[in-house]
Inverse folding.
């Protein structure tokens, strides 16, 4: 064996093993050129997805800290541009949509189940000027906001942004404004890797948002989550945690919430 070949083998032997979760996530990321597409949701054509809403009631979800709340399911949600632009209209009934109460000021909603690394897909509708968010692991917020029509510099508070850290600073504005108008259903698709911990429970790797697509448009890529963002759940970072939907910042409705695990 030649000297260079021997050296190459040594480097291969010494190289750390590739993180299998990161590798699985990377394989799942669509090529932004060759795989570009718009239309139906991925859970309709790709294997491995399962719903987090049962299409009838709020089983599998609870309010943060087990507090009282006004979330309800509905068969239909509407927005009235002229007569009630800052609210959504829906009737409480068995259905596949969930709404954060009559006035959009209620407790945050949390999954009973905890998750590790995952791909998340959901659809949402906002009233004019409304604000919500999806907290990955209950700790790291991907912002939902009525950014429609805004042409100025985007901030962490715009739709598709990763919100600022609890201690201030940080976060990531969306790469572009892909928000649709109030009253239109919109989609978020998020690839998330959980933080990693050693045998002693010390964090050895931050969580990561590998990609966020807002309405099929990429708005985040390869962002390391240095810590929890503002208004996160009162729970420590961990390998597994729930998902939280913000309910106290204005009217919002959700439907078609699906998850695919990378574990």
């Amino acid at each position: 064996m030649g000297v260079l070949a021997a050296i190459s083998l040594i480097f291969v032997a010494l190289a750390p093993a590739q993180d299998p979760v990161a590798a699985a996530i990377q394989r799942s990321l669509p090529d932004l050129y060759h795989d570009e597409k718009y239309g139906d949701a991925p859970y309709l054509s790709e294997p491995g997805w399962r719903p987090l809403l049962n299409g009838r009631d709020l089983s599998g979800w609870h309010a943060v800290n087990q507090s009282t709340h006004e979330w309800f399911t509905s068969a239909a949600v509407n927005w009235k541009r002229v007569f009630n632009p800052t609210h959504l209209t829906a009737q409480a009934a068995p259905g596949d949509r969930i709404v954060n109460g009559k006035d959009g000021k209620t407790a945050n909603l949390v999954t009973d189940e905890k998750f590790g690394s995952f791909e998340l897909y959901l659809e949402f509708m906002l009233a004019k000027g409304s604000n919500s968010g999806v907290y990955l692991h209950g700790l790291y917020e991907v912002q939902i906001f009525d950014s429609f029509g805004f042409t100025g510099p985007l901030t962490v508070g715009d739709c598709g942004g990763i919100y600022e850290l609890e201690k201030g600073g940080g976060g990531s504005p969306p790469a572009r404004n892909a928000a649709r108008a109030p009253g239109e259903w919109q989609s978020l698709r998020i690839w998330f890797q959980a933080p990693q911990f050693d045998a002693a429970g010390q964090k050895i790797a931050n969580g990561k948002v590998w990609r966020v697509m807002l309405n099929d448009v990429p708005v985040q890529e390869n962002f390391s989550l240095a810590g929890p963002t503002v208004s996160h759940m009162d729970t420590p970072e961990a390998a597994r945690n729930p998902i939280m939907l913000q309910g106290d910042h204005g009217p919002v409705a959700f439907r078609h919430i699906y998850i695919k695990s990378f574990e």
Notes: The chain has one domain: 19-261. Residues 3-14 form the longest helix (12 residues).
